[in-house]
Design goal:
Elements (H helix, E strand, L loop, with lengths): L15 H20 L4 H19 L9 H8 L3 H9 L11 H11 L15 E2 L10 H9 L5 H11 L2 E4 L3 E4 L10 H24 L17 H34 L35
Antiparallel strand pairs: 1-3, 2-3
Helix pairs in contact: 2-3, 2-4, 3-4, 5-6
Pfam families: DUF6502
Protein name: DUF6502 family protein
């Protein structure tokens, strides 16, 4: 189903509220770009390609072939550039790493019963168990990677970035607080792209659509002391992680249930959807005091 521009063609300019929100959104993005020496000309070329791709894929007319002229009209990208970009091979600026595999492995380790101790915490796993059928690190890796990536390769990388420790040359111990290690730019960039994309998709669809909204909530206060910020930050981390771990455990259970259903008749139960839930906590100095919002 093709998307339709929400603003009529006779509108003089986009809504001021949207432009104001866009300006706020761009400031941290531009700060990030400048930090990595991504200049305006480079960004403009990337924007041109993205405008053309989105218009080409998401703003098609029913039963009509998408043309360079229409895409140029929609996007404002020159027709010559539109033709060039549509005919060139699409290449990501940064190749995706194996971060998604690491996230899947951690999700299983902190949720599946065979990898948990009596208190529900992830167990220290033998790299390779001497007893067939017992849980070990090799089995964990194989459950996600099949035969594509060896367990030793995963462990070496996790040790490098601080996600796991090898104890006594045999036991693998997970560092739960290092899901995204500070030393791994690729991992942080991967989650930046995935999480902010999904958050922005939810927020923008809520703005453009009259359908039931995606969940998007926040708690905002100012006029707080450093001590109050630290207390709230610790509370957010503890309760947020508890929520994510509970949701992760239930999602794995639901996946397992669906995998066991061999005959799926109802399209609503077809396992073709994905979800993403995250949370963040941000604080900074404020120059003005405003009313608290919830």
């Amino acid at each position: 189903m093709s998307a339709k521009p929400p603003i009529s063609s006779d509108a003089a300019e986009p809504p001021k509220a949207v432009l104001s929100a866009l300006k706020k959104l761009l400031r941290p993005l531009v700060r990030l770009l400048l930090s990595f020496q991504i200049t305006l000309p480079y960004l403009i070329e990337l924007l041109k390609r993205t405008y053309v791709e989105v218009a080409d894929e998401d703003f098609k007319l029913d039963n009509k072939k998408q043309t360079d002229t229409r895409i140029s009209l929609l996007t404002g990208v020159h027709r010559k550039d539109t033709r060039r970009l549509r005919n060139s091979d699409t290449q990501d600026c940064v190749a995706e790493s194996n971060t998604s595999i690491g996230a899947q492995l951690v999700a299983r380790w902190i949720s599946k019963a065979e990898y948990l101790d009596a208190e529900g915490n992830p167990k220290r796993l033998p790299f390779k168990s001497e007893q067939p059928g017992d849980a070990d690190f090799e089995t964990l890796v194989a459950s996600v990677c099949k035969q594509d990536i060896r367990a030793r390769v995963v462990l070496d990388e996790w040790q490098r970035v601080g996600m796991a420790t090898l104890v006594d040359g045999h036991w693998v111990e997970l560092n739960k607080k290092a899901f995204i290690a500070d030393t791994s730019l690729d991992e942080k960039a991967f989650f930046l792209g995935m999480n902010l994309t999904d958050h922005l998709e939810a927020a923008s669809q809520n703005l453009r659509s009259n359908k039931p909204p995606f969940v998007e909530r926040c708690v905002y206060y100012d006029g707080l002391t450093d001590e109050a910020i630290q207390e709230l930050k610790q509370l957010a981390e503890a309760q947020g992680m508890a929520m994510l771990e509970a949701l992760n455990k239930r999602a794995l259970e639901l996946q397992a249930l669906q995998a066991n259903e061999s005959n799926v008749q109802d399209s609503n139960t077809n396992p073709s959807q994905r979800m993403n839930l995250g949370f963040y906590f941000f604080h900074e100095l404020t120059s003005e005091k405003t009313d608290e919002h919830l």
